[in-house]
Amino acid sequence: MSTKTKYKKVFKEPKKYDERLGEDLLPLLEYALEQHKLYGTPLPKWFKGWEGNHLIPQSIQGILENGTVNTNDYRGINVTMLGLLASLRGHTSPRFATWKMVTNHLNGKVRKGAKSYPVFFYKFIHKHVETGEKLTDKEAEKLPKELVKTTSFIKYHSVFNEADIEGVDLSELKTIAIKNPEVKPNEKAQAIFDNMPNRPTVNMSEGDRNFYSPSEDTVVLVKPEYYKSNNEYWSTVFHELGHSTAHATRLNLPEKTGHQFGNAKYAFEELRAEFTATMLCNRIGIEDTQENSVAYLLGWIQSLKNDPKMFYKAFKKATEAVEYIDPS
Prior knowledge:
2 domains, 12 helices, globular
């Protein structure tokens, strides 16, 4: 008499976003740093150049459905995470797709052993203040703000790089650049600097130290002629302007400035400023400073290990700083 074996279905709770960040990013960064120290292996790029083209990560589904790149597919921290992880993993394609897209719509499969990439997004829950009833986004939009309580939390879904997709011919799928290659990066950088709203006082120095003084609301910069390249100069300018956005007359983040070197709050502020500089450089096509930016991040690995959420929080605040500095 044969009996059927019953299998109990085990529910596996999905990882939280900070656990996924720590799991995907930190081991690879530590390995990259170790290889760099031992063998001089080049550090990974912060924003991947994607085969020399100035592109952003792109959704295969978006290109197939719309014939163009939707810049809302991957934005904010996802541009950084997809680019940095792709560089660490050696992927050269900027195109990604979900498991469902690959298997159900493209009739392909994901390579066995392939590692997914996290794509983060906000989930919003709306409730009526008086009744406690849950509301849809459309229902919440129609009501006065004082009658709607909105809470948000971070979630993520997984995508796979084109290199790990099998059984699908994507050779004719266009890779679309969204930046204007005719714009000269240094001219654009100068325009961002000149047009920054409520820009702090900027003084040039013959010394060897760049810094932002919150008490005087002043940026002090080493003169441009002392830098190895214009790109490094502008990366430094944007870093210090990033610090300045914490001032009470701008984004009002005074608690993020003036902390002791090496502690967690100092690390957060330095990451925020460096993310700001890197995003602005990437926006205008300056890529020469990317390795320096990654080296900067590697210097804060221990702080990130102690608090993986720091990466996301710093990036979120840096995004606000970028939009303040360059609202165009």
